[in-house]
Amino acid sequence: MLPPEPKKSSPAPPAGRGEAMPVLQRPVTSLRGVGAERAKQLARLDIHTVEDLLLHRPRRYEDRRHFRAIAELTRDEAATARGTIVAQGLKRFRGGAKSVFEFVLDDGTARLHCRWWNLPFMEKYFAVGDEVFVFGKLVETKPRTMDHPETEVIETGEESFIHINRLAPVYPLTEGLPQRWLRGLIWRTLEKFESQFVEPKPAPDSKTFPTRANAVRMIHFPEALADVEIARRRLALDEFVAWQCEMQLRRRNFEAKSRALPCGGDNRLMKPFLAGLGFKLTHAQTNVLREIRMDLGGQPSPGGFGSASAHPMRRLLQGDVGSGKTVVAACTALMALESGFTGALMAPTEILAEQHFRNFQKWFKPLGIKVQLQTGSHKPAGSRESRVESPSRHPPATLDSRPPTLFIGTHALLTSGFDLSKLGLVVIDEQHKFGVAQREQLVRKGNYPHLLVMTATPIPRTLGLTLYGDLDVSVIDEMPAGRGRVKTFVRAADKLPKVWEFIREKITAGRQAYVVYPRVEEQDTANDLKAVTREFENVRRSLAPFRVGLLHGRLPGREKEDVMAAFRANQIQALVATALIEVGLDVPNATVLLIENAERFGLAQLHQLRGRIGRGAHESFCILISSARTDEARERLRVLEETTDGFRIAEADLKLRGPGELLGQRQSGLPRFRFGNLTEDLDLIRRARELAAQTPGGVPEKI
Hints:
Elements: H1 17-20, H2 36-44, H3 50-54, E1 60-63, E2 79-93, E3 98-106, E4 111-117, E5 131-136, E6 140-141, E7 144-147, E8 150-154, H4 160-163, E9 167-170, H5 179-193, H6 212-220, H7 225-257, H8 270-276, H9 283-295, E10 314-319, H10 325-338, E11 342-346, H11 350-364, E12 370-374, E13 405-409, E14 423-428, H12 436-443, E15 450-455, H13 461-467, E16 472-476, E17 486-491, H14 496-508, E18 512-516, H15 532-543, E19 548-551, H16 557-568, E20 574-577, E21 590-595, H17 603-610, E22 620-625, H18 631-642, H19 646-657, H20 659-663, H21 665-668, H22 682-693
Parallel strand pairs: 4-7, 10-15, 10-16, 11-13, 11-14, 12-13, 14-15, 17-22, 18-20, 18-21, 19-20, 21-22
Antiparallel strand pairs: 1-9, 2-3, 2-5, 3-4, 5-8, 6-7
């Protein structure tokens, strides 16, 4: 925190359209004291309007009614002290390339040395005699020293009451923006425009929540620390209501202009498909298919699934790894194909797309259904049956002149020249790997086709309610019979020799193994993070004479395909890979998974990787090698030892690492909530859904 800069004359508020705007929507340059340079600094904090400024959330609060005496400061706890600078100076060394600026603070009980390394410009912000607030932890006790503490010069004047003798908000800053200046600006703006925050309709219960205007004041200048959480919850509720309304409005608009294609099918393909599977669907799979048949516009039939729907299906299918989502997708595709429509299934990687292609071709070829593959490595031109003919050279025939077709591919399905005639169904596998825009791009290749998005990354209910309010949700919560049990063990790196011995025993018994590393190549020789290309030779030596293959994202498509084919055929007994294998690979004979540097992966990703084993009848073993040095990292990995329940693991991952790790926040389309906490605010999300449902047209009057 830096002291205020000299006052500058303020530009006049913008005229014309700016004056006609609602006050809270006016640009920050309309505020006194905010010129072009300050506006640029505020923009780096994503503050563009008056409302943005007043919703800029403090990151912590300093109790400036009570200070810690310098003599009582410790290494263990960050605290605020207050004193007077009695000495300061800048020292340069190594020919001026390095420096340290230091001042000495005295409060009458002791002295505190505050240092800034290689920031010589700090010298100009302080002077002997300045009274200063300092926040931080001691790094040394003899003498008492803080490195790079947060500071704020205490100035007397008419606004001093904003900064001292109160719970003072401390805000996120950017270069050149003083804490004291920003706090003063927010105080003055709040004094002038607090009344512009009006209650939305319907408003939350006034007995439970403060008004929105009161909450904004409390979040900035609370009377007690307990006020902060009360205010945060009210402002979080407003955020969740606005998001729920947006999703509900999106859903209403979609339903108003779309009509469901009749894709319910007649079971002429479904019955022989189910009879030829060699196993019965679980109750969970059957229940989900009943919901899907209703969405697709199918009429009730004896022993069939569901009834008709007026709008195209928009459904999220959640199922833990190995729960049988692919078979459900196949049945869904058959319904559309029976109805005379084309289907498309998009997967995030070529490996997964090619595996789907093999499975669907095996299932559908006896039914007379054509399955075609479209990936970056399988270009439209070519003679192989798996390749799609180029639309530019061979214009698509009418649907009636060709057999029912299911297209399977990666992002290549999105290619502008690739035609999907009479598209009735889009299936997105591992949907969290795709952006919302990519999903919509594929859907727009048809005239409101049905959409089924699938994920083996269980989404905690909190996120599901928030992110997928515009989708119906189905869950496969039952695993197929006949799967081997998976045991998980966390081991330190010094146990690796015994682990290799164990893997050799399993391979000798006829099984196969995955060995996973977090990187493709070593990027920093000083880093102990292992890389797949470097470790490949080590694994070959450890498992000789058994054959070891290498798989990572930088290999050419043909080489990746050849390696996987050899592994499926047990011509390769161990596969050394990156996390590329986390989605969809199905090799029932692989029963051992070794993951090194396991602490570098998220829990949900480790669970996905673990889903590559336990897919056959044999008992399987997941071994996590970790050099975790913190209690938190060790606790995360213990979760995997204790449970194979993907939803429990997802909840733990959300709590420990936040939603970005679980979903990929940029991909998911999830907004940035200033006040909402997706880990802990499930009750607020539920209340927001209720309030949004009471809002006419899905839009609150004021938020």
